[in-house]
Amino acid sequence: MFQFRGLQFWRKYIESKQSPPNAYFRFVTKDILKPDLEIEKLPKQFFNFIVISHCFFSDSDSQVYAKHNYTRIIQNCLQPGGYVLLIVQNKKLFRIYNESPSDDIEQEKEIVNKFLGELGLQLVWYKCLSSTESRQPLGGKRFRQYATDRLAAQQYISKVAQEYLGIPYDYSYVLDDYIILASYN
């Protein structure tokens, strides 16, 4: 229902524009973690740009199914020469390879390239976005103090979390992601 309402909102927004963008919007609600994802129902070599955002998993079974299905979607639905924008949390990217985030740029590039290679992609560009000065997580109390001192609080969700979940601190807006642009040949 939430996805359907999102589609309705998108259509209403597009229709309200004086010069609507020339964009194709396809709304597909498939469980990407199912081993029998029906790739054949998606258009073949139709898309020239795909975005996969925050859909990478720590649990190994989900990780295997998702990576397998992303590879199938890229190979079957993306045009040759198309691009994929991946947004993945830094801890999850490193955890896939049983590594910890570090400030070692060579290790980072190696992991990014390995990750893309498994998806059948080639690196075009990547950037590490972090709310801290380091690529390494600060962890626990140290991060909480850093967030309190330097990051904007999420005032509305914090109130809900405190009231219903008993969280004793404010949530903050935090970035700890890799933005990766890759090509498919």
Helix and strand succession?
HEHEHHEHHE
Structural class of the secondary elements? Answer: alpha+beta
Helix content: 40-55%
Which percent range describes the beta-strand content? Answer: 15-25%
Poorly predicted runs are none
Q: Shape from CA axes?
A: globular
Overview of the molecule:
The structure is a single chain. This protein has 185 residues and is an alpha+beta fold. It has six helices and four strands. The protein is globular. The chain starts with a helix and ends with a strand.
Please provide a brief summary of the model:
This protein is 41% helix and 19% strand. The protein is built from 6 helices and 4 strands; from the N terminus they run H-E-H-E-H-H-E-H-H-E. It has helices spanning 2-16, 60-77, 90-95, 105-119, 140-150, 155-165, and strands at residues 47-53, 78-89, 122-130, 176-183.
List the helices and strands and how they pair.
Blueprint: H1 2-16, E1 47-53, H2 60-77, E2 78-89, H3 90-95, H4 105-119, E3 122-130, H5 140-150, H6 155-165, E4 176-183
Parallel strand pairs: 1-2
Antiparallel strand pairs: 2-4, 3-4
Key features?
single chain; 185 residues; alpha+beta; 4-stranded mixed beta sheet; 6 helices; 4 strands; 41% helix; globular
